[in-house]
Design goal:
The complex is a heterotetramer of chains A (522), B (320), C (309) and D (551). Chain B has 320 residues and is mostly helical. Chain B contains 16 helices and no strands. Chain C has eleven helices and no strands. Chain C has helices at residues 2-31, 34-41, 45-67, 100-136, 138-153, 156-167, 171-198, 201-209, 213-249, 261-268, 280-305. Chain C has one domain (11-305): MetI-like (MetI-like fold, Orthogonal Bundle). Classes of the chains: A alpha+beta (522), B mainly alpha (320), C mainly alpha (309), D alpha/beta (551).
Chain lengths: 522, 320, 309, 551
């Protein structure tokens, strides 16, 4: 139910020149930012997680819930890593190089990286790991994002990727959590159920839907890391139970705090709240093929009928920011700063309804809390605010179970959430381009599609910005989705824990890497 | 006694039929749910291609009856199959959780059954007194609160920073606690369940006993000068056992099969969560496995109840 | 000290409740016709209190739009106001800033209505089939009893989840699904009770008279099976609230923004772990109604049992 | 007797019972004196307060009753002011109780011997072992078969007559000073009754125990009591020693009791040859499961005739009725109605066939739906069979109530619970009449009723038969009833017709041995009857078959 990938603002620097990025980042520490205090080693970190299911599996292609994604980053390394500041930094790949058309990429692997099993990293491991997701019969959730790779060849410690078309953002793709590097077997494939990995911790024990225990990988290649001796990860679905576990000291860290009570949790002694805002956004997609949503004026009426500030205050309890009906977050490279923030305006609602030739509008919106936390409440508030403009919005409660197969993209007006994508292109190409599988509004705009292709290959920074600005404008004004808010990741932890000054915002849990980034204060 | 053995044999055979029908209903029910395993497990990230590939790989494209018959053939040979999601054996998945579910159910039952019997007997003894009405009203109040809410209240009162008990049973999944540790850690979940099931059993005990108090043999016992307590315990209770045993069995079945909410609140790794997760993911072999365990528990408990009720009735044990 | 104060409050509440019960009974005896008032005089204080409460609930449900200070769905203030923060909101506001008191009042209408309809339906289905099984016997009894065995072997909550997901969540479907599942329990009871009645001579007499099945059930058996069924009704009524709130725990249940006590408890339940009493209000509303209903049921049952003490 | 010490003195006893939240006096100032070793018979009809007084002698009042006035002095102890604990200490130890239905009053969950030893052990009179040995001894004295072993059975494994003796033994366990016998033989068959009566009398004499013997049966009390007190509606009518009371009652009420069995049906003319009987039972063999309860039964019932089917419990009388009504299709044979064969199963009979044969049940309590008013109870058959509705129906119901001698205005809207036993039975009759049948089965219709009331019912039935040309099949175990109402008699035993013929023949010797046994076992109003009978039987008369007749 979560997104394929979630990353933020791979900042400023040109991605093409990945090698330079290392140089800059290496001045501080290669994988983090300046530290608040001198880290101390030792201790067992106990983490309580809100998601995780007994149907989880070790196969990286099936990873979906936070429990497994956290496991992924704790046990594994990737070719590239998104640092806490949002920049792309090398991990198992020391450096990378692209051809001029950005269609051929050469990654140079770090040598001497040791797996938990003692196996040493080779280019074959990388090829086998990526191949696991490719091919006709791939069942991997990551199949679409590696579909562009037409060929991979090993050359010593270099791996050469050939793409079907140029993609300037390809190194970002390789940081996707589905793509950990696992040891190749003799036949050139990986064992998808292996517990081996080359990350900071080895799995000591794992029971899906319940918990896992990890022990420090003594041969980890990152100097001095990790700080913890061991990590215990427990699934605690229930909001109250999770918070109680933290308050009573049964766990040191919880990945999700209940927004209804976070203000109370905050007052508990020894508890700190962790909140980061990135690209995670909540939306209400409309099927632009279906009446009445095929009329752009109806869509605009609905967009003006929602009280965004109220939603952020109430549904997010203030932990988030206003959305402007497009999926690009304020922290991203090409965020359109010139686009006026859309406000709640009943007069405009009426205006657009009249334009659409209507006196009033009766529509159903199909929601479940599976769409996003508080979706039903959001629907209720939306209905309240929209009624002032003459829209009778009827909130239909759908079961959580089966929401994504039965309601989402099936009902003409529903709810959705996106963890977002690290690049504008990736986000737009995933859900806004004509005919792509996850175009949840069945929206098609010629100008937008044109811009998408040209911006992807555009190397001129200013031109590219201009094009992305225009695309955001188009989505916001003509697109089929209402995006009222960007939601923060809100967790909480015991003040015995210490962490670097900067916390990654691409994912929960410090980019799911608190295992190697955090430590106990004493 | 042989007629009791015959009854047990008949009921076991009937139980097998029940299990079979349950498996059929659950199978059809899960089939009728929108979406299949491939869609659900891939969730929002499903694309037509990956869904098709996954279906192909797991044999989900076979017609319904072929899959059901395949499963049935395996189960008859004692093979519960493997989880579609992660290839773990269903027997293995269920095994550990079943033990923990049974532990919790036994713990709760060990408190709840004696408690409700004693309260029921006392309520019958002091019927219509303040004690009776108060016990009744408290029991009713406790079952009119949703389980999770009862759990929260108990956590608030008895756990937390200076409480005597841990707010979650996390420590159970962290390792095998010894017996006393277990009693401590699982106390709140067990107490929550106790509050949930006590009222029903208590009321039934009280009603079953009071129902008999106008019997001539009770009057006879009073006229033999027996004390009220002895009349209730020695004379009324043995004859009221059948309905009490029945309601106890129903509640024990509930303790095994119906505790998913308590499991969630107390982070107790039992079968309920496994069932809910598997249904959500349409992981048929696991759903079927757990459903069979639940139905089996229900059938066995009912059978035990009937056997005990029979044994408690001399008319049925010692035929003329 | 805290314990003692609590005990004092409890005692005061009980005394107040009994006093209310007494006043109600006295008043009711005075205003009702002779036949009714004769019955009422026999009511113990607990049952009088129960009747008073039920009447209040019914009044509240019917008059909700008149007595509620705000509308059911309107956002009228900041979210999470405590009782006393603002005199306009006597019980504070909820997580969306709706008036708690108004929501509570409207919820009486929805929750009690739905629970009542559901329970009644479960009883109609369960008792008609149960009586039918008892009276016809033979293969019909076997068929129905075995079917019920099978249905009861499937955990209720999971079964409800399955069915509701298949047929879709709407109030009608929810009522139907819960009623069907609950009716299996009623069936067992009704059948057991009826088994004792069908052997009575007056049933035999009616059969020999050539009475049809429907009349046998409705006129001969049902009136005599009412007492235990009514007692069960009291408990089942309360279990329906629980099922609804458990379903909303699993994301099914009553449609927002309809106010419903079960869902209100669920939505705010986490607050209790911080010592905030907000969720206690709807929970107490359910508990009070349950206890009241069962007090009245107990009284009726006691009367029916003929046990004189 | 009066030279012995006084054991129990009751003065001006008043007891109230609650009905509809009002307290009504049901015992109105009764005095009673009982000496040690003396047996007092309390007789009266239902509602006379006999049992209530008996229980009050133990300081006990049933739920819904309270002792509101007077004194009860037992051997110097004031039972009214004594603490409950003190009274409990007396009950079972010094005052014991023998209930009417031993089958219902033994706890089904415990063995007889455990129930025997409960009182002695709990009252600290004996240890458990002693009590068990004592039980065996008393069981022997009560002439129970296998006294060593019978105590280890559960109540359901023992026959009714034996249970009643075991209960008397249990009452004797602590060798009490006083035993209250509350109709101990009423529920028994006549042949069994004799054994129990003799066993009770022996043991009371042997331990010189005082007893209050409560019964409605004068002939029985005549055998048991030293003196008799007659009660009516909670008040004493008179008291005298037994012989005086039997020979020279002073009060009219007593005299009327003594004169009860006066109803006698006039001899009917013989049936003309060739008349088609209304009902004809032809070669019926029937049973449950594989067991044959009836074996080749044949008899006819003609219009305006009453056929009495007589036998003890288990003889197949009621099963015969079930076959006729079609509730139990026979294995062999058939039922003919006016010469037409009836379908074996009532479900296959036409409405008219059902209408023609009606039934009146023994227990009016279970035969009338307690939730229906008389209007509906009686009106329903008329509505159903005759299509009466509205005013016509109401008229018919009133008419029927008149026929059974109940005031329509007063009764039409009553529930069965608001009627007395005799009135309920009349409603049963009215319901049968409402269908305007040709044939009515009366299943022990008077056996649960007081004699005076039963008398009234019998008269009514006779009257109705003449008025509507009815044919009756009258099932009973009571030979006195047979004498008064039957034209023809069918005697049944263990599913077989032992003897059948016109009444006049049946009550004249020579008898079939079983008929003889039945006839001789009917108690007579002679204090010496039991002694004589026992002597005769000991001498080798019909008594040889007594043991076999127990159920």
């Amino acid at each position: 139910m979560t997104q394929l990938t979630n990353m933020t603002s791979p900042s400023r620097r040109g991605v093409l020149k990945g090698a330079t990025a290392i140089g800059a980042a290496a001045l501080v520490t290669p994988w983090g930012t300046p530290l608040r205090a001198q880290p101390v080693s030792g201790g067992t970190l106990r983490v309580g997680m809100a998601h995780g299911s007994t149907t989880d599996a070790l196969d990286p292609g099936s990873w979906e819930a936070d429990f497994m994604i956290f496991q992924a980053h704790t046990r594994n390394n990737y070719l590239t890593e998104i640092a806490a500041d949002g920049s792309l930094v090398p991990e198992l790949a020391e450096s990378w190089e692209a051809s001029a058309d950005a269609a051929t990429w050469t990654f140079t692997l770090r040598s001497g990286v040791e797996f938990h099993s003692g196996h040493i990293l080779t280019a074959d491991d990388v090829i086998a790991s990526i191949n696991h997701h490719r091919g006709e019969d791939s069942t991997s959730a990551a199949a679409p994002i590696v579909a562009d790779i037409t060929d991979m060849t090993a050359d010593g410690m270099n791996v050469v990727f050939t793409l079907s078309a140029g993609n300037a953002d390809f190194p970002f793709v390789l940081s996707d959590y589905h793509l950990p590097i696992l040891p190749a077997q003799a036949d050139g494939t990986i064992d998808p159920n292996t517990q081996d990995g080359c990350g900071p911790f080895r799995i000591a024990e794992i029971e899906f839907g319940v918990g896992a225990r990890y022990e420090r990988h003594e041969g980890y290649w990152k100097e001095g890391l990790p700080y913890f001796d061991a990590i215990e990860q427990v699934v605690i679905f229930d909001d109250a139970a999770r918070q109680n576990a933290l308050i009573s000291g049964d766990v040191d860290y919880i990945d999700t705090a209940d927004l209804n009570t976070v203000h109370l949790l905050e007052r508990a002694p020894g508890i700190e709240i962790l909140s980061v805002t990135g690209t995670q956004h909540y939306g209400l997609p409309m099927d632009t093929r279906a009446a009445p949503f095929d009329d752009v004026n109806v869509r605009m009426a609905l967009k003006f009928g929602i009280n965004r500030q109220q939603l952020v205050d109430t549904i997010l309890n203030g932990y988030g920011s206003l959305g402007n009906d497009h999926p690009i977050g304020p922290g991203q490279r090409y965020f359109n700063t010139e686009l006026e923030q859309r406000e709640y305006d009943p007069d405009r609602v009426q205006f657009h309804l009249r334009e659409a030739g209507m006196e009033s509008l009766d529509v159903d919106i199909h929601l479940a809390d599976a769409a996003f936390a508080g979706a039903l409440d959001a629907g209720v508030l939306f209905a309240e605010s929209a009624s002032a403009g003459g829209i009778n919005l009827n909130v239909v409660r759908e079961p959580n179970d089966g929401y994504w197969s039965n309601v989402w993209m099936q009902k003409p007006f529903a709810g959705t959430y996106w963890g977002g994508r690290p690049t504008e292109d990736w986000m737009f190409a995933t859900a806004y381009a004509e005919g792509v599988p996850w175009n949840e509004t069945y929206w098609s705009n010629d100008r937008f599609n044109e811009l998408l292709v040209s911006a992807r290959a555009e190397l001129d920074e200013d031109l590219r910005r201009e094009q992305y600005f225009e695309m955001q404008q188009i989505v916001s004004d003509e697109g089929g989705i209402i995006i009222p808010m960007f939601a923060a990741y809100v967790g909480a932890y015991s003040d015995r824990l210490a962490h670097p000054e900067q916390i990654a915002s691409n994912w929960r849990n410090d980019g799911h890497r608190i295992g190697e980034r955090w430590w106990f204060a004493s | 006694m042989s007629h009791i053995l015959t009854m047990i044999a008949q009921r076991l055979a009937l139980g097998l039929v029940t299990l079979f029908v349950v498996s059929l209903i659950i199978f059809l029910g899960t089939e009728l749910l929108p979406g299949d395993f491939a869609q659900e497990i891939l969730g929002q990230s499903a694309t037509p291609e990956t869904v098709a590939a996954l279906r192909e790989q797991l044999g989900l494209n076979d017609p319904m009856h072929i899959r059901y018959l395949g499963w049935l053939t395996d189960i008859v040979q004692g093979d519960f199959g493997e989880s579609l999601a992660n290839g773990q054996s269903v027997a293995g998945l269920i095994g550990g959780r079943l033990v923990r579910t049974l532990q919790l159910a036994s713990y709760a039952a060990a408190i709840a059954v004696p408690l409700s019997l004693v309260l029921g007997i006392l309520a019958a003894l002091f019927r219509n007194s303040f004690f009776d009405r108060f016990a009744n009203a408290s029991a009713l109040s406790s079952i009119s609160f949703p389980e999770f809410f009862v759990a929260y209240i108990l956590i608030f009162l008895l756990a937390g920073a200076n409480g005597a008990f841990p707010s979650t049973a996390i420590n159970i999944s962290r390792g095998d606690p010894n017996f006393t540790e277990y009693l401590h850690v699982a106390f709140l979940p067990a107490l929550t369940l106790t509050l949930v099931v006590t009222a029903h059993m208590m009321r039934m005990t009280r009603a079953a006993i009071i129902n008999l108090l106008s019997s001539p043999y009770i009057e006879m016992a009073r006229l033999k000068g027996m004390s009220p307590m002895r009349i209730i315990v020695k004379h009324a209770l043995p004859n009221a056992l059948a309905p009490i045993i029945n309601v106890v069995a129903l509640n024990l079945a509930y303790l095994i099969t119906g505790v998913v909410v308590v499991e969630v609140v107390f982070v107790y790794p039992g079968l309920g969560q496994l069932m809910v997760d598997s249904v959500a993911a349409r992981d048929m072999p696991v759903v079927q496995g757990v459903a069979l365990i639940f139905a089996g528990a229900y059938v066995l408990l009912n059978l035990t109840a009937d056997v005990l009720a029979t044994l408690s009735n001399p008319r049925l044990v010692h035929r003329r | 000290m805290g314990f003692l104060t609590g005990l004092l409050w409890l005692a005061a509440a009980i005394i107040a409740a009994m006093a209310a019960g007494w006043l109600f009974r006295t008043a009711a005896v005075a205003v009702t016709p002779r036949g009714v008032s004769k019955e009422l005089k026999t009511a113990p204080l607990t049952a009088s209190f129960g009747m008073l409460m039920i009447i209040i609930y019914i009044l509240v449900a019917f008059l909700a739009p008149v007595i509620a200070p705000f509308s059911e769905t309107e956002v009228v203030g900041p979210e999470f106001m405590f009782p006393g923060d603002d005199p306009a909101f006597v019980l504070g506001t909820d997580n969306l800033g709706r008036d708690m008191l108004s929501r509570m009042i409207y919820a009486a209408r929805n929750t009690v209505g739905i629970a009542f309809v559901t329970t009644a339906l479960a009883f109609i289905i369960g008792s008609v089939l149960g009586l039918l099984a008892a009276i016809v016997g033979g293969w019909l009894d076997q068929l129905l009893s075995r079917t019920v065995d099978v249905l009861m072997a499937i955990p209720a909550l999971i079964f409800a989840l399955l069915l509701l997901t298949i047929v879709g969540t709407s109030i009608i479907n929810m009522i139907l699904v819960i009623a069907v599942i609950d009716s299996t329990r009623v069936f067992r009871l009704a059948r057991a009770v009826a088994m004792n009645i069908v052997v009575m001579d007056y049933v035999e007499a009616a059969k020999l008279r050539g009475e049809g099945l429907w009349r046998l059930i409705t006129r001969e058996i049902l009136p005599n099976a009412m007492a235990p069924l009514v007692a069960e009704f009291g408990l089942r009524f309360c279990f329906v609230f629980l099922t609804i709130s458990a379903l909303s725990f699993l994301g099914l249940g009553i449609q927002p923004p309809t106010a419903d006590w079960g869902a209100m408890v669920k939505d705010t339940a986490t607050m209790i772990t911080f010592g905030n009493v907000t969720p206690l209000l709807p929970a107490a509303a359910i508990a009070l109604l349950t206890v009241s209903v069962n007090f009245v049921v107990d009284w009726q049952l006691h009367r029916a049992s003929g046990l004189k003490e | 007797m009066s030279d012995k010490e006084v054991l129990l003195t009751i003065r001006d006893l008043r007891i109230e019972g609650r009905a509809d939240e009002e307290w009504l006096e049901i015992v109105k100032g009764v005095d009673l004196t009982l000496h040690k070793g003396e047996v007092l018979g309390l007789i009266g009809e239902s509602g006379a307060g006999k049992s209530t007084i008996g229980l009050a002698a133990m300081g006990f009042a049933r739920d819904g009753c309270r002792i509101s006035g007077g004194t009860i002095d037992f051997d110097g102890i004031d039972l009214r002011s004594a603490s409950e604990a003190k009274r409990r200490g007396l009950r079972g130890k010094r005052i014991a109780y023998v209930a009417q239905s031993a089958a219902a009053s033994f706890n089904p969950a415990h063995k007889l011997i455990d129930q025997y030893s409960e009182a002695p052990v709990q009252h600290g009179v004996m240890s458990r072992g002693e009590a068990n040995n004592d039980a065996v001894e008393l069981y022997g004295k009560m002439q129970l078969p296998n006294p060593d072993e019978i105590g280890f059975r559960y109540p359901h494994q023992v026959s009714g007559g034996q249970l009643q003796r075991a209960m008397t033994a249990m009452a004797m366990a602590c060798r009490p000073d006083l035993i209250i016998f509350d109709e101990p033989t009423t529920a028994l068959d006549v042949t069994t009754q004799i054994e129990v009566l003799s066993a009770i009398r022996d043991i009371v004499e042997q331990f010189d125990t005082a007893a209050i013997y409560i019964t409605h049966d004068l002939a029985v009390v005549a055998q048991m009591a030293d003196k008799i007190k007659v009660l009516l509606k909670g008040e004493e009518v008179e008291e005298a020693d037994t012989r005086t009371m039997l020979n020279a009652p002073t009060q009219d009420y007593t005299k009327s009791l003594w004169a009860v069995r006066s109803h006698a049906r006039p001899e009917q003319p013989p049936i003309e040859a060739g008349t088609t009987p209304v009902v004809s039972v032809k070669g019926v063999t029937a049973g449950y499961g594989t067991l044959d309860v009836l074996k080749n039964i044949n008899f006819d019932i003609h219009a305006r005739r009453t056929v009495a089917v007589v036998g003890e419990s288990g003889s197949g009388k009621s099963t015969t009725a079930r076959v006729i009504t079609g509730l139990l299709p026979p294995r062999e044979g058939e039922i003919q109605f006016n010469g037409q064969t009836l379908p074996a199963d009532y479900r296959n009979r036409t409405k008219d066939q059902l209408r023609q044969a009606q039934m009146i049940y023994q227990m009016a309590d279970t035969a009338l739906n307690p939730k229906q008013k008389l209007r509906e109870l009686i009106g329903r058959p008329a509505q159903m069979y005759l299509g009466l509705n509205g005013k016509a129906l109401e008229e018919r119901v009133r008419n029927l109530l008149d026929l059974i001698e109940l005031e329509p205005d007063d009764y039409i809207d009553r529930l069965p619970s608001e009627l007395s036993g005799g009135q309920k039975q009349r409603i049963g009759i009215a319901r049968a009449l409402a269908a305007e049948p040709q044939f009515i089965i009366c299943d022990e219709v008077t056996s649960a009723l007081d004699q005076l009331v039963a008398e009234g019912i019998l008269k009514l039935l006779d009257k109705l038969q003449a008025e509507f040309d009815l044919a009756y099949m009258f099932i009973t175990h009571d030979l006195a009833t047979v004498k008064s109402i039957a034209d023809e008699v069918v005697v049944m035993k263990e599913g077989v017709v032992v003897e059948q013929g016109p009444k006049s023949e049946m009550f004249q010797p020579p008898h079939d041995p079983y008929t003889e046994l039945l006839l001789s076992s009917v108690p007579e109003m002679d204090p010496d009857w039991l002694d004589k009978l026992l002597e005769e039987r000991a001498a080798g008369g019909a008594g040889a078959a007594v043991e076999g007749a127990g159920n």
